[in-house]
Amino acid sequence: MAVIAYDEFTSSSSSLSSVSTFTIILIHGLLGCGNDFADFAHSLASNLSASHASADWRMVTMDLRNHGRSTDIEGLLPPHDVENTARDIANCCD
Hints:
By secondary structure, the chain is α+β, with helices and mostly antiparallel strands. It has two helices and three strands; from the N terminus they run ββαβα. It has one domain. The protein is 28% helix and 18% strand. One of its GO terms (molecular function) is hydrolase activity. Pfam families: Abhydrolase_1 (PF00561).
């Protein structure tokens, strides 16, 4: 199964292998890509780390099908519809 391109930020108290208390998912608009959130994601991550130092959280920015780095991923076959987009997002969050 192909997985769309994404970046993940985690709290300093969390590890990538552990289950986070909460997850923030940032999804771009029609003509965007996950990189649109780069500055915002870094700022939010800094603020969350400062204000919720003991919380285990993760934040995911993603490139939906045919956007950003996901355009080069093989296996993301048509149809490029809402159902497959929702499935891609769910696969990213597992």
